[in-house]
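Could someone model flavin-adenine dinucleotide with this protein?
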Amino acid sequence: MPELPIAVVGGGVIGAGIAYELARAGAGIVLIEQKELASGCSGGSAGQITPGHTPLCDPQYAKAGFAAMFDSRAAFYFEPRCDCLALAWLHEFCRRCVPAWREAATAVLAQLGHFSFDVFQEWKQTLGAEAFDFHDGGRIEVARDDATAQTLQKQAQRLGSHGFTWEWLSADKIAARAPLVTGPTRGGVYYPQSGYCDPRRLTLALASAAQKHGAIIRERTAAVGLREDDGKGRAAVVEICPLHESGTTTGSHERVAVAAVVLATGAWRSPLWRQAGLTPLMEPGKGYHLDYPWPAFQGAATRQHTQCAYPLVLAAEKIYVTPLVPQIAIEGTPRDGFA
Ligand SMILES: Cc1cc2nc3c(=O)[nH]c(=O)nc-3n(C[C@H](O)[C@H](O)[C@H](O)COP(=O)(O)OP(=O)(O)OC[C@H]3O[C@@H](n4cnc5c(N)ncnc54)[C@H](O)[C@@H]3O)c2cc1C
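Reply:
Sure, complex below.
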């Protein structure tokens, strides 16, 4: 009897990445995506590859988050809501916004940062940098005021103690290296072990490479049911349902026997989680994404035009600016976390 495939549910960067790695290790894969590949968060990300993302459980974020509950224009806005889930999450979040948790989270995220950077270096070899517009020349975090400059320096020192190199750039150096930044700045931090890519193209490149290794990709197909086949966790059945382009169901359900199921459904609260007996431990957040024409090139920039550009973070504003082509991608961080 041929070996059963592994079902990967969710065609974002995580699902496509898992499908690729498992397929090239020799596993049979069925990748199931309810819309199109990269139609979720992965299509709207800033694509920045960071040296251990700054943890949110920082004492200053608890204060900022509380203040922002009353300002819907704040970068770190949480909509005040009187529901148990939101209040319980907020209580836990505030409880953990202490230096000890921040240090512990920094250690974990830094480890993940080193690991991810190595994975990207490998994908650069196996997929080709041009397939996903990958650049590993570093990234700059910009401070416009003294308080933010101090915060950035402290963060850099923390990351420095976890093996990341960094360089403080004066306002003049920021002006030279990041001409996209206008107006006064107090300087910023340059992290060489970081970079960016086009997240949509990365997802498509991973899926296409998985396909070359034999993976089957089912787009516009939702996974709607999940159960153990033999009651002993040795095999499972995924119930899938092809969808019309409008997202409505075609009504024709199929059952696929698989060896294992990987749930890579991102922020989607899929009923599959409940059916698998899992409780998600994280709350999804929301962000926004804007494609902005390159000012100097009337929007028609090519990679050649933008060669010297670094991905940027405007630290106080929490705005991410990534020099993609043909347009600059501008992203903002969480609005409430209880979507
Ligand atoms: C504004 C913004 C900017 C960001 N910037 C960065 C950044 O610079 N760097 C960084 O590292 N991260 C960034 N992120 C985070 C990053 O985008 C996400 O962590 C990542 O894309 C998550 O990938 P995923 O595959 O888990 O989820 P998704 O890309 O959301 O994929 C999940 C997929 O599962 C599918 N799905 C759900 N349920 C089912 C089902 N039942 N059946 C079939 N398919 C299903 C969905 O349709 C979706 O396509 C950013 C996020 C936002 C919002």
